[in-house]
Amino acid sequence: MHISYSPKNFFTHDKEFYTTFFPLMGMLILQNMVSYSVNLADNIMLGSYSQFALSGAAIVNQIQFLLQQVTLGIGEGLVVLASQYWGEKKLEPINELIGIALYVGIFIGTILFFFVSFMPKRVLSIFSDDPDILETGSVYISLIKYTYILFIITNILEASLRSVETVKIAFKISIISLVVNVIINYILIFGSFGAPELGIKGAAIGTLIARCLEFAIIVYYVVFVDGKLHLRISQILKPRFTLVKDFFRISLPVVATQFFFGLSVGLQAAILGHLSADAIAANSAASTLFQYFKLMAIGASSASSVLIAKSVGSGKIEKIKEYSRTFQIIYILIGVLISALLLVVRIPFLSLYSLTPDARILANQIIIILSFTCVGTAYQMPTLTGIVRGGGDTKFVLKNDLICIWLIMYPISFLVAFYWKLPIYIVVIFLNSDQVFKCIPASIKVNKYNWINKLTK
Q: Whole-prediction pTM value?
């Protein structure tokens, strides 16, 4: 059911909007940054250990990133639907939706686990054909694969809590995980305090222990501490068929969108990886810094999605147009902030890495390129995934990405990289060009307001 109406204000004057959105966004940004710092710690420590260790972990992390995007899709699909029920103060459907999301996530994680177990080097060869990088990557993935299902369950449970505006526990879990991971990494990668020097294998052990700890804490919290969801095993194990249909109808476009986005990032790494070994390390270092600051836009998107979906569910339709306009200005300001931060910290950040001179120059060039495209990223990504998708239109983002990324950006980028064989930094510009021109359909779509869709029964 699509709803249209006339706005009262250009920006919202609703105090509840600001007192709800900014604390929620701030907590989500902090939680995402701390959580991402687990990967950042691996990246920096391995980068200071050796370039081959960094590159080996980088190609494995492309698989992890793809899994993360699929898990994010499941979680965001859950949030869109569950937040509308939360707006109606109905908990029973939320419990059942959590069960459905867990079934789907565990199924996907199990398939991926067996896939990388039986043919690890064949999978990793997608991202690089360098035998030394493949060898170190195989060592890393032999342990990282055990984190997949734990990671999925943890993130789906955190998404379920986010749908009812509970986010502090996820932040606390991320802090604990970061501290544990950094300590174990330092001890096992470099052989500190008399421990064996395990290099990339030590990083994998640290990440595995951190994921186990995250899983244990979140399960304990939702079962024994949480006072909102009141999870019931019977509702999780036996969801109603109508809710299963609703979940797949809403979530499949979201999961597909995130899957193709993860595939896109992996394909970018594969393109650069087949251009040169230096390009793998340079892209890993540059994208690590960019992804870290991009978490501000992701936090804004997640908070927007919860607020928009809750407003639709509770019937506050007259407020949503004001909310969406206010959000768009906030997104642009976040993009400008990210751009400035990238330019300021790029040199000291790259000094943490043990890179070849060519790789260091290329990494610096990539960060400068990303500092310009990030304004587009910070606007169009949360506009589409936070406002439009949070409002109930989960299909538009998928259609938009399929056209902009797969029918426009990649065909041109392949020509630039392998036919015209232009310099690597030119290839990077084209690989990120969609982040800019996607702003046009995003702006048109969000300001038509035909995405407001009540999904609950």
A: 0.82
Helix segments in 314-423, DSSP class H:
317-350, 357-382, 395-401, 410-414
Tokens coding 442: 């995003």
Query: Which pLDDT band holds residue 429 (cuts at 50, 70, 90)?
Result: very high
Query: Distance between CA atoms of 354 and 352, rounded to whole angstroms?
Result: 7
| CB distance 257 to 397 below 8 Å | yes
pLDDT tens by residue, 157-172: 999 999 998 989 999 9
Exposed e or buried b for every residue in 405-442, given b needs 16+ CB within 10 A?
A: beeebbeebeebbeeeeeebbbbbbbbbbbbbebbebb
For residues 83 and 86, give the distance between their C-alpha atoms in angstroms, rounded to a whole number: 5
pLDDT band at residue 8 under the 50/70/90 scheme: low
Distance between CA atoms of residues 290 and 321, nearest Å: 31
Lowest mean pLDDT: which of 135-149, 158-172, 220-234? Answer: 220-234
Residue 304 token pair: 């927007």
Return the structure tokens found at 4: 């249209």
User: Whole-angstrom Cα distance, residue 395 to residue 381?
Assistant: 14
Provide the residue count of the chain. Answer: 457
* H and E: helices and strands count for the chain: 18, 0
